[in-house]
Write a structure and sequence with these properties.
The protein is built from 6 helices and 22 strands. It is α+β, with helices and mostly antiparallel strands and 372 residues long. It folds into 3 domains: 166 residues, Elongation Factor Tu (Ef-tu), domain 3; 59 residues, RNA polymerase II/Efflux pump adaptor protein, barrel-sandwich hybrid domain (OB fold (Dihydrolipoamide Acetyltransferase, E2P)); 83 residues, no CATH class. The chain is elongated. It starts with a helix and ends with a strand.
Length: 372
């Protein structure tokens, strides 16, 4: 009886141990799978198969003004409004007063110096009448024209070295040129529009105190725009030969025409492209805006091996490739486009190109491709 009990207990312990190990092994598998799922990311990919296509030569560019200036002053003081109150988008005309700095203190200083100069000439008149009687008239005429509210008249012509030395010893010449310098500085209290244009940014408002070099506003010339276009080395010669280009929007609608203004002699090492600058002449009833992106096409077409990928796959002239279980970045050149598709050069047949852009994460250890 006792022996049978021991056998039964042994069988029960064995069965319990077997069940425990089976349950334990079943629990570990989901944990492993969950851990793997958290560290693995599935990405849509497509195998590259370059095809010979006849494409219109197309690039892209951003519109910018030919001339853009920062408004600032060379003097210090309280900023005051000009003829119009400037805000972003406000238009102005050439020679309009845009801003001024309060010049009251400088004006009184200048008036005081002119009065001082008049006193110096008056005190020298008795000696001029005795030593240079023939020159008396021109100095009296100079005194008549000298006024604190008017610009300094021309200095009378000094004929002899003796007269020059006399007027210098009396301090007349020193004061005269010092006042000329102050008058020239007075012009710096006013900012007159050098061209007709538009205000793009405003940094300081009337009533604030400005220092020399303080940025007050940014203005751009209207009517004269240009487009900087990155063009691949493979198609640069054809763009330069044609000279003229057509600008369209993303839907292919023609916006403007233009011709080459200049070609940079510096190559972008990352994209192997050269910046070409085009003038922009908008079509009738079309508006071209500063900062607008446009497509640039020329009349010629070319046969070029390329691969078609979605626009979403490209960011800053590059795509992601799946190599093994990792993503690497690859620079490409866009040689053509459709509304949702780009034709790119620079990928090798057989490459696994990722069809979307992803931000890499330290939690993702490997990537797996899902072919589309």
């Amino acid at each position: 009886m006792k022996k049978n009990q021991i056998i039964l207990i042994g069988i029960f312990v064995g069965i319990s141990a077997l069940i425990f190990f089976r349950v334990s092994s079943n629990k570990k598998a989901p944990v492993k799978e969950m851990k793997e799922a958290k560290t693995t990311m599935f990405v849509p990919v497509s195998e590259v198969k370059n095809v010979q296509r006849e494409l219109q030569l197309i690039s892209y560019g951003q519109v910018s003004p030919n001339t853009e200036l920062d408004i600032s002053f060379e003097v210090q003081g309280k900023l005051e409004m000009g003829e119009i109150r400037l805000k972003p988008g406000v238009k102005f005309k050439m020679n309009q007063l845009l801003y001024k700095v309060n010049e009251e203190e400088a004006f009184f200083t200048l008036s005081s110096r002119k009065t001082q100069l008049a006193n110096l000439v008056i005190s020298a008149m008795p000696d001029i009448e005795l030593d240079f009687p023939s020159e008396k008239g021109k100095w009296l005429n100079f005194l008549d024209q000298l006024s604190p509210e008017k610009r300094l008249p021309e200095l009378p012509h000094i004929k002899t070295n003796k007269e020059k030395m006399f007027m210098t010893s009396r301090g007349v010449l020193i004061d005269y040129y010092a006042i000329r310098s102050l008058e020239s500085r007075m012009e710096k209290y006013y900012y007159v529009a050098p061209f007709s244009g538009t205000v793009t940014e405003v940094f300081s408002e009337p009533g604030s105190i400005v220092n020399p070099g303080t940025r007050i506003a940014k203005i751009a010339r209207t009517g004269e725009m240009e487009v900087k276009v990155p063009i691949s080395l493979k198609t640069l010669k054809q763009f330069k030969t044609e000279g003229k280009a057509i600008f369209t929007d993303a839907d292919g609608r023609k916006l403007a025409e233009g011709s080459i203004l200049r070609v940079s002699d510096v190559i972008n090492q990352r994209t192997q492209s050269v910046d070409v600058y085009y003038s922009v002449k908008p079509n009738k009833d079309e508006m071209i805006y500063n900062g607008q992106f446009v497509n640039v096409a020329i009349a010629q077409s070319a046969k070029q091996e390329s691969f078609a990928i979605p626009r979403a796959a490209v960011r800053e002239g590059s795509v992601h490739l799946l190599k093994g279980d990792q993503l690497i970045r690859k620079d490409i050149v866009v040689i053509g486009n459709k509304p949702d598709t780009l034709f790119v050069y620079g990928l090798n047949n057989g490459d696994q190109v990722v069809l979307e852009q992803f931000e890499k994460s330290s939690e993702i250890k490997k990537y797996k491709g899902i072919k589309r």
